[in-house]
Design a protein that fits this description.
The protein has 123 residues and is an all-alpha fold. It has helices spanning 2-32, 40-63, 69-75, 79-89, 97-122. Helix 1 (2-32) packs antiparallel against helix 2 (40-63). The radius of gyration is 17 Å and the shape is flat.
């Protein structure tokens, strides 16, 4: 039973890592927006964005083998947390109380959706 719990935690960590990778597309997109349309840097960053999305798509397909679609998709909402982190660390944007409340609500909802998945695996 301990192995089952460990596998469940590892699967959730893998899911969150995939979501973090997905959130990087928002960072790349913000960088892309700073360059002239179809300039060399615009095209290179756009290609990088496309590559990151391709990596995420492959990871997503693997995750769907381990999670119900509703649980996996609900975890994509954690992109908000990662985007808030990136916007603060990379772009020095302000964190407001409203943003924090929103992210906390999303995290709470994600935990609620993940909890029943853990219970099913234990049985």
């Amino acid at each position: 039973m301990e192995s089952t719990k460990k596998n469940a935690v590892m699967a959730i960590l893998f899911l969150q890592a995939a979501v973090m990778i997905y959130s990087l597309t928002t960072v790349i997109s913000k960088f892309v927006s700073g360059y002239e349309f179809l300039s060399v840097k615009f095209i290179l960053l756009y290609m990088l964005d496309f590559a990151v999305l391709g990596i995420y798509a492959i990871l997503w397909q693997q995750l769907l083998k381990k999670f119900e679609l509703s649980v996996a998709y609900a975890n994509k909402a954690m992109t908000l947390l990662w985007s808030l982190l990136w916007s603060t660390v990379i772009f020095h944007e302000q964190i407001t109380v409203t943003k924090v409340i929103g992210v906390v609500l999303v995290i709470a909802g994600t935990i609620v959706l993940n909890y029943p998945a853990k219970e099913k695996e234990d049985k």
